[in-house]
Amino acid sequence: MTLLVLNVKLPNIPSTEAAQILPSLIFGMLNRLHDYLISFLVLGSFWISSHQQLHHIRHVNRPLLWINLIILMFVTLIPFSASLIGDYGRQQIAVLFFDTHLLIINLLFCFNRYYARTNDLLKFDHDLDWVMKIGSIDGLLNFILILCSIFWSFLIPTGASYRFCFCR
User: Fold this and answer.
1) Whose CA is closest to 94, among 103, 106, 80, 84?
2) What is the full DSSP assignment across 142-165?
3) For the chain, N or C: smaller number of CB within 10 Å?
4) Which residue stretches of 5-136 are H helix?
5) What confidence category does residue 164 fall into, taking pLDDT thresholds of 50, 70 and 90?
């Protein structure tokens, strides 16, 4: 996650002109900082989900490792998706890409949990509340929000990016 800050770069400016140029450069970077914030928060939420899932797993097997590797592949694409939505958030394709990306990651996390549950990989003293979240209202809330966002992008594509200012 610390590599995300590499997308936030100031151009080289002469130190003699910094007082005049730097304020406008920093203000002009607000989109990049917004992308960084979205990426960091989304990646952080996926890191927490992964940590919570691994807490309940007794042991892993090769398929579970592959599932987690595929999850990681999609998670590492978050900075690109956030940058896309930051730069082109008023374009429906950018919103659809971002939302579909989040939907795929959420589905993979559910599949990870389902696979662990059905293949007897959970700890013997596992938390039944955690196991039962598959298919529950709490578990479906994320999907409902993402699907609403996709639907919203078809209704008002030019205003689709505004909901990313405060959430995700």
Assistant:
1) 84
2) HHHHHHHHHHHHHH-GGGGGGGGT
3) N
4) 18-28, 30-55, 62-75, 78-88, 92-118, 128-132
5) very low
The 10 Å Cβ neighbour count of residue 55 is 11
Q: Which value, to the nearest 10 degrees, does the dihedral of the CA atoms of residues 139, 140, 145, 147 take?
A: 140
The closest of 102, 94, 100 to 75, measured between CA atoms, is: 102
Task: Identify the CA nearest to 127 among candidates 45, 16, 60, 52.
Answer: 52
- pLDDT tens per residue across span 103-121: 899 889 889 888 988 898 8
Buried b (16+ CB within 10 A) or exposed e, 106-145: bebbbebbebbbeeebbeeebeeeeeeeeeeeeeeebeeb
Question: Can you say whether the dihedral through the CA atoms of 51, 57, 58, 59 is positive or negative?
Answer: negative
Token duo for residue 62: 């090769």
Per the CB < 8 A criterion, the answer to whether 160 and 152 are in contact is yes
Chain segment 36-94, per-residue pLDDT in tens: 787 788 788 888 878 878 878 888 999 999 999 999 999 888 888 887 877 787 788 88
